[in-house]
TrEMBL record:
Region (Disordered): 1-74
InterPro entries listed in its UniProt record: DUF2188 (IPR018691)
Species classification: Bacteria, Pseudomonadati, Pseudomonadota, Alphaproteobacteria, Rhodobacterales
A Pfam family of this chain: DUF2188
Protein name: DUF2188 domain-containing protein
Record field: compositional bias (Basic and acidic residues): 55-65
Length: 74
């Protein structure tokens, strides 16, 4: 299975989960919360990142599942 980052993005029918580089949605949900849950499960399974976009399309949050490419220093 490929490690595609999962993006939660606005969609005409609510909110969609899209794999990075994909033009089509993996799934479409009525609420952002439902889309986040689906994206998180997929990202955990793949060991990838989940990026949550706001209604304006800008990334507002990102979470890494698996090996973090930018671990916190300290």
């Amino acid at each position: 299975m490929s490690k595609k980052n999962q993006h939660v993005v606005p969609h005409q029918s609510g909110w969609a989960v899209k794999g990075a580089g994909s033009s089509r949605a993996s799934s479409v949900h009525g609420t952002q919360r439902e889309a986040i849950t689906a994206a998180r499960e997929s990202a955990i399974r793949q060991g990838s990142e989940m990026l949550i976009h706001g209604e304006n399309g800008r990334i507002r949050e990102r979470n890494t599942y698996g090996k973090d490419p930018y671990p916190p220093k300290g």
